[in-house]
Amino acid sequence: MSVAILIVDDEPALNELFVIGLKKYGFSTEGVLGGRECLDLLKDAYRPDLILLDMMMEPMDGWETLHHIKADQDFRKIPVIMQTGKNLTFKEAEQFSYYIEDYIMKPITPKRCVGFINEILEKLNSIQSVIDTARTAGYSESEIDRFITLHRANDVSARLMRLLEDRYGTSSGEQDPESYGPEDFQAFRTKIKSEYDELAQKMGITT
Fold first, then answer.
1. What burial class does residue 128 get, using C-beta atoms within 10 Å of its C-beta: 0-12 exposed, 13-18 middle, 19+ buried?
2. Cα within 13 Å of Cα(133), Cβ side
3. Neighbouring C-alpha atoms within 13 Å toward the C-beta of 146
4. How do residues 138-173 score in pLDDT, each as one tens digit?
5. Are 199 and 143 spatial neighbours (Cβ–Cβ below 8 Å)?
6. Nearest to residue 89, comparing CAs of 150, 149, 153, 161?
7. Which of 26, 90, 114, 153 has minimal CB crowding within 10 Å?
8. Interior CA angle at 101 toward 119 and 151, to 5°?
9. How many CB atoms lie within 10 A of CB 174?
10. What residues contact 39, with CB distance under 8 A and at least 6 apart?
11. What residues contact 10, with CB distance under 8 A and at least 6 apart?
């Protein structure tokens, strides 16, 4: 069975480009033109293996759409890759680290996107085997959920840091109104890495 991917982008031409383009690489694709349409489709029991979500949409942007996805018990575990042409801030990088699998800067072609998708699917398959082992060992769902959250945040934040450094160098870049900069983001990364390592050691998990 081919991997099902939902493309959420309010630009019709780009939406169609990715729906058709990713099909050529063997994926099963659906496209919707906004956050509300995405949520409606998910509520109709459509369950993609992965969501490609544009950030800059109207009237419901990608960040709001992502919050709704992750707040719903029925589909909060669907992995999401965020796509955007907007420059990322350090504060946004912290927020995204908990919820997404990757962050792709536009413009990007379907062909180039395939590499990102396959990498994420491989990571998800790898962590699933770890989760299965933890369940067999009798660890609670709350411990496993926390491990998954920290594993994602640890991995994604490292990649977002590289993206931010490529864009801004070692400067603070485009900070948010609270002047949250690279030092703050690094402190966040250090904190979640420490918590992740502690939990992984407690659960006897090697990743």
1. exposed
2. 13
3. 15
4. 999 999 999 999 999 999 999 999 888 887 765 554
5. yes
6. 161
7. 26
8. 100
9. 16
10. 65, 68, 69
11. 33, 34, 54, 57, 58
Q: Which amino acid is at 3?
A: V
On whether the CB atoms of residues 82 and 159 are closer than 8 A, the answer is: no
| Residue type for position 70 | K
What is residue 59's DSSP assignment?
Answer: S
Nearest to 81 by CA among 60, 57, 105: 105
Residues 189-192: contacts with CB under 8 Å, at least 24 apart: 189/154, 189/157, 189/158, 189/161, 192/97, 192/150, 192/153, 192/154, 192/157
Structure tokens at 154: 């640890």
Residue 173 backbone class (left: φ over 0; alpha: ψ -120 to 50; beta: rest) = left
Q: What is the pLDDT of residue 207?
A: 61
Q: What is the three-class DSSP state of 29?
A: strand
pTM for the full predicted model: 0.90
How many CB atoms are located within 10 Å of the residue 14 CB? 18
% of the chain surpassing 90 pLDDT: 70
pLDDT digits (tens, 9 = 90+) for 64-100: 999 999 999 999 999 999 998 888 889 999 999 999 9
Distances (CA, A) of 63 to 5, 7, 15: 19, 15, 18
